[in-house]
Amino acid sequence: MGALVIGAGFAGAGAWHEHRVEVHPLREVRSGQRLVAVVVGTDDPKAVAGKPFGGPKVMMRAQLVEYQLGGRTVRAGGAVVVLAPAAAWRAVLPGQRVEFRGKVGPPWRTDLTVAVLRAEGAPIAIGAAPWWQRVAGRVRRDFADAAQRTLPADAAGLLPGLVIGDTSHLTEHVQKNFEESDLTHLTAVSGANVTILLGVVLVSMRALTVDPRFGAAAAALALVMFVILARPSPSVLRAAVMGAVALLGMCTGRRKQALPALCTAVIGLLAWSPNLAVDAGFALSVLATAGLIVIAPDWSEWLIMHGWWRIPAEAFAVAAAAFVVTTPLMIAMSGHLSLVAILVNMLVEPVIAPITILGAAVAILACLWSPAATLVLHCTTPPMWWLLTVSDRAGALGASISLPTGTRSGLIAAVLCALVLLALRPRPRPPGTEASDA
To answer: To bridge 166 with a disulfide, which of 160, 220, 418, 437 should be the other Cys (CB 3.0-4.6 Å)?
Structure first.
């Protein structure tokens, strides 16, 4: 009954939001019409792949404040996507209000985006970003500069992406290898980043015999600081909630507690940001977290019972569970299927935690004491070398296949993955087996 009530409520809210987008005054403007818009950025400008006409471009999600067209000013909100020249827009911070001249275009996706605005020229800043966004911008900038000074180009561009999701300096070579070997999830802020950082904080507090309440407070503070540094966009908040849920499941070992927490997190995030309902990253994050909670522990125990050591068993179970539950959606969206994804993710998993921890230390030290940041950056060289080597070798294999995209392909893949899960589900041991084993 409760599920029906919640579902009906979300359906009504979704229909209302969709109606607001459809009747938005900007939808009545002819495609290609020029106007002057005022927007507030909600995320960092991100480089557009490829070589678009007119030079490098960036894409920025923003909230519309008003626009001027035909001598009149229309004040209207709504989510928009700004496509702009990279050189002039890279410095725009989330939360900063800017004015620019551009052309109106239709939205690229069937979400709650009102329109795509193609900016012409540089923006005019008419307001400063919030102080925490300016601080986060400085930390991100100092982090990237320190990495560029100390590490080789591939490692320097990759490290900020692994730690705080800053892919602005990621080289095309590394990006291509990561796409080929299904490692692109590492360069987006994910629940894994949050899980690792919170785990380090909690373990450190326990080692110092600190009161558990202070340990929980320290973990909450670290979570808030990380969200600010990685930008409090819907994707980052999603990762923070999913990481906290995953950590709850691993620390307590009680899936009965973790699953309700996951469901509560999904409901809360959808209520806060309805646009997540059609966000592929959100769906992949939920599926991966559910796989970690529900499937991975049983597969890990089965492997251990059949002679695997615990560490490789857990690494393989996590990689395999995440692969199986997310493959249908990945095929439906991109038609890409890597045949070495499980092996590659298993090989790189041991170095992700050290890179995340050391990278977080660098991000803090880079704006406080540069020599210490340089020293820690040198410590990241071995794990970064291993990660880049594995991705390079995997990318060179070309061990991926292209499949048709769309709902039909996704459904077929979902059926096949469901059959795999049914075939590999743990079977109850016959009565008396435990005693005979003893």
So the answer is: 160
